[in-house]
Amino acid sequence: MFMLNIRHILERARLYFGRKEIVSRTDEGYVRYTYRDMFDRVCRLINALEGLGIGYGDRVASMAWNTHRHLELHFAVPVMGAVLHTVNLRYSPEEMIYTINKAGDRILFVDPDMIPTVRKILEKLETVESVVIMSSKGHEDLGFNKPVYIYEELLEKSSSECRLRDIDENSPAAMCFTSGTTGFPKGVTYTHRGIFLRSLATCLADTYALSERDVILHIVPMFHISSWFMPYAATLVGAKQVLPGPRPKPEIIYDLIKKEGVTVSDGAPTVWIDFLNYLRTRGEKNIEPLRRLIIGGSAPPKALIKSYWELGVEVYHAWGMTETYDSAAAFTRPKSYLEDLSEEARLGLVAKQGLPFPGIEVMVVDESGKPLPWDGRSIGELLIRGAWVVEEYYGDPEATKKSFLNGWLRTGDLVTIDGEGYIEIVDRVKDVIKSGGEWISSVRVENEAMAHPAVLEAVAIAVPHPRWIERPLLIVKLREGYAGKVSKEDILGFLRERLPKWWVPDDVVFVDEIPKTGTGKFDKKVLRERFKDYYRGSGL
Ligand code: AMP
After folding, report:
1. Under a CB-based contact definition with an 8 Å cutoff, are residues 400 and 193 in contact?
2. Average confidence score pLDDT of the chain
């Protein structure tokens, strides 16, 4: 049987797209090379890893940004039959220690700017035998209690001749941990087959249409579900790839788009909100040659989608979870016969979470697990299964039992599905606000608040209330230059025109920063705890 594995993706790129470019921003400057060069270095890395005793099924961890070296690890490790565990750099040191020990990682690859963090956690890592610094030069005494290697030295000493193994498609290739908003993060394993099929699906003309002609800028961090696995799809079709390196700020993104000819990019709404602000401060009216943005991870506000349309950029809204190989579970693009809708209606459609990808199946169920109709009104939990949806949590039968129902993953998202099959998230099961026994969609409240020109980010949370049990409170981060110029009443008045009366939050709190989870989502758990007494004594 022909195996759907990462070896095929890599070899195809060498055979057919050997001259195409990969551009990488590192802390040592820009690196520009071809797929052929990458192939050569991946072979060297495989030999180096074998020299360090890594074999089939072993786990290799990375703590790194989006660079060519991290890309090489994404191929070398799974192609030799080992498993790449990308450690989330936004985790707390405790979460890093927990996830590395749980995965049983044997080698830790780290970017130079992560050295101070590694110094803090290394002693507590039970299975890590050695550390590789992803750099070309030695570093002063690191004070590590394990052998330390330098990436480029390892590659230089290794042969570029290697025999690629044809790994069984159901073997694990990568692993990641969930964002851990409740308790410790849960581990998820991704197979060669799942990554292959997911990559193929994102290249379909009716999904993200990734093609050889594209220049793809990977903004989603590789430490977060391997940049949504987009580097594999890009390699599969031989597209030029641009890796923006450590902490890419809007000015870096702008330069890369212009200089490298980027046509498509991806990321969470916050990144693209910041970028839009940057464009506004520069007075830019277009961002050519950028044509498509795949935005997901949380709901992009309608105002954001519209602003990009005005810049000539199409927005593909993506929905997914760590458990569904991230943002290729559902997507929105209006069907051909829906394209004539008014702008407002089209905006409403694109703001929905959309249709499942081919290879993915969904249903919406009530609390007893009974399927609900697709009428755009009946609200229930979304269940999902498919060719790249995991079926268990790594080494955690308890969590597996809780989250799976007859082979379907319980997403924890409350949704409606309309007659055309478009999914719309109303809320997370645990984030929904229940006021006087009625549901208020925090997602909808946030979306409307973020349409206010002064609002950069808004979060609606449920706060205990003596009369209504819970009432919404809106936490707002204003755009630069608006502090002191916009009142709470301005924002509440704006919402009164757009929301049912009782959905309008009772109050607004302005903050300098909104706390985020390891995967960059608003951390409502922290906010709920901080404001739990806010309405104490009100309303009676
Ligand atoms: P994570 O596993 O950390 O990526 O979180 C997955 C959850 O993020 C989903 O179950 C949704 O609640 C939320 N999410 C992801 N994409 C979107 C989206 N496009 N719109 C709204 N919520 C989203």
Report:
1. no
2. 93
